User: Fold this.
Amino acid sequence: MKKISQVLNWLSSLKIAILLLLLIAISCAAGTIIPQQESEQFYYDNFNKNPFLGLINGNILLLFEFNHIYTSFWFLFLLIWLGIALSVCSFRRQLPKLKSALNWIDYKSPRQIAKLSIAQTIKTNNPSKSLDKLTIKLKEEGWNIKETDGRIAARKGVIGRVGPILIHLGMILLMIGATYGSLNGKTIEKFLAPGRSIDLLDRNKEKGLTIELQKFQIERDPKGRAEQYRSLVNIIEENGNSKVKEISVNYPLRYKGLTLYQADWSLAAVTIQIDNSPKLQIPIKKIPELGEQVWGTVIPTKKDGTDPILLTVNNELGPVLIYDNDGTKLISLSPNKEAEVKDTLIKIINIIPSSGLLLKHDPGVPIVYSSFAIILIGSFLSIISTQKLWVLYEKEKSLIYIGGLSNRNLSGLSRKLPNFISLLNN
Assistant:
């Protein structure tokens, strides 16, 4: 039993809790620096030549699961350890303090009151009247009173003892919610062009929600720099009911546990017309070799598929740059403009942008939000000081002994004491 008690004391020590919090904070910081959930080859390519902190290469990083820190075995172990430490601390320290605060302590001896943090002795000729006045005053100020023959015990702010327990409970729920969300949450990143949709499956692998992009707009400043992205999405339920909502950067949509973010933008296709052909919507892809934001495609100018040209564009407003197969720039065409390229009439109808949507389903969010509420309530209650007061009348000497203590804000109780003494003197 002694060894068990030592282990429990060690688990609930403040030093261990601070050390665990420090390790968790460092781990979270590392998770923001090291890219998460990438392919194994990504870590080999990026960290074998340039190890993290000069020590951790791609092999070590993958071995210790730094590629998914928040769901790694050691990070979950730290959270579980901290949760156990907080639980043990609550049961061994905070609950006994609450129980002690709820129990009435009856001081029957003047010597007991004299040992309190604040104590005074008053001589009075009418103790019954003085005690009645003090009792009424204490009740008016919200004190709980317990009267015994010639003695008064009063207390106030006992609810403040609940605060630390609620904070511990909230922190444990926060870790449970965050862990549950990390292990069971899903994140989908998808680029959609207007008119396209994505189907979301439920747990039974059946279609649940359909998200259709109706309109996408990029707002730019006078210099052409993107300032805001806006998407008009239609949320279609399985029963056919639908709701049209707008999302933009920093203004996500939350719908039945799903959070839809406006994350990025891209270019999906360019619509062109070659000679007298129908309008052709040709998909375009990023060409990183030509720049960070350059999209393009190669199309033939002859019916037999020969003599190709390269079309490139860097934003939805154009222009479209056309290059020969040897890299020579032939012409620049804006939307709704046409020109003859290699004896072929080419007209640019429009450039179709696509919206980068980030969909997150985190089942731990309700638990996390509840934990925040509990922590806030606990923090507020922890501010409330628990104050206790005892008054004892010694009939033989016509003396009244008054004393009190407080777990915090002892000076506040000492400032109140002269007012109580004045009632006893009258």
